[in-house]
Design brief:
alpha+beta; six-stranded antiparallel β-sheet; 5 helices; endopeptidase fold (from Nostoc punctiforme); 8 strands; rod-shaped; two-stranded parallel ribbon; 285 residues; 54% helix
Length: 285
């Protein structure tokens, strides 16, 4: 602190003369009013009694304090209880959401399992149906082969003409298989057992006799030896178009007829050569 700085006085400041005069005047006025009122009062008036204010005792203060502390404690306890209930409710909601999510996942898993089971069942039924149809086809083929062999024997003994020729041996198996598929659907690229295209049917028929042919018609008609349409035998392969570039093939079954997968509107049919005369024929047997 600077040595020249003024030192603040610790004495109470003196009241100004004007304030003291004002207060003296007020006090004098009050005393005068009291004196006049006393003089004007009747002689027999009862003397004024002194009124005292009852101050709260220490005991009442302690009671009030205890009451306030108790109320604060109850409020704190209620707040703690509310918070505990809120926490329990939040925990219950979280558990319910978790349980719902788990239940949904389990339901989805069961649904997927049921879907997979149904799909597998459908595939199994389809395989069983295909196997059953293949068994029926094999049975018809065997029966037709036996019937053809029997008819061939009787026709040979009777000296039948070439138009009434019936297949024997491998040719009988080819013809029987082809005729067993009559009525099946035509599907481009079909290779059986219930739908075929022309070359798919020819390939499967020759396979029934143990002979492997290419898949497409042009390659099939390029095999074997060319024969005239007037010298056909059951089991010969008929083609439409050029031999190496044929667009349709079928199987000659004897009696001036052939079996082929014609088109989507007719499916597999047996027709006379006159219905759609082929371009040529080859003998593969």
């Amino acid at each position: 602190m600077s040595q020249t700085a003024p030192i603040r006085s610790h004495r109470k400041p003196r009241r100004s003369a004007s304030k003291m005069a004002f207060r003296a005047g007020v006090a004098g006025g009050v005393l005068s009013t009291i004196a006049v009122a006393g003089a004007a009062a009747p002689a027999n008036a009862e003397p004024l009694t002194e009124t005292t204010l009852e101050m709260p005792t220490l005991g009442s203060l302690q009671a009030d304090l205890a009451s306030a502390v108790s109320a604060s404690a109850e409020a704190s306890q209620q707040e703690a209880l509310d918070q505990s209930l809120a926490a329990q409710e939040n925990a219950a909601l979280q558990k319910a959401a978790k349980d719902a999510k788990k239940a949904k996942a389990e339901a989805d898993r069961k649904a997927e399992a049921e879907k997979a089971e149904k799909a597998e069942k459908a595939r199994a039924e389809a395989r069983a149906e295909a196997n059953e149809r293949a068994s029926r086809t094999a049975a018809r083929t065997s029966l037709a082969a036996k019937s053809s062999s029997s008819s061939s024997s009787s026709d040979s003994s009777a000296g039948s003409s070439s138009d009434s020729q019936v297949a024997t041996g491998s040719a009988a198996a080819i013809v029987a298989f082809a005729r067993a598929q009559v009525g099946d659907a035509y599907v481009r690229g079909g290779t059986g057992p219930n739908s075929w295209d022309c070359s798919g049917l020819v390939q499967a028929a020759y396979r029934a006799a143990g002979i492997d042919l290419p898949r497409v018609s042009g390659d099939q008609s390029s095999r074997g030896t060319s024969v005239s349409l007037s010298n056909l035998q059951p089991g010969d392969l008929l083609y439409w178009g050029s031999r190496s570039g044929s667009y349709h093939v079928a199987i000659y079954v004897g009696g001036g007829k052939y079996v082929g997968a014609q088109n989507p509107s007719t499916g597999v049919v047996e027709r006379s050569l006159d219905w759609d005369t082929p371009s040529g024929a080859v003998r593969i047997l």
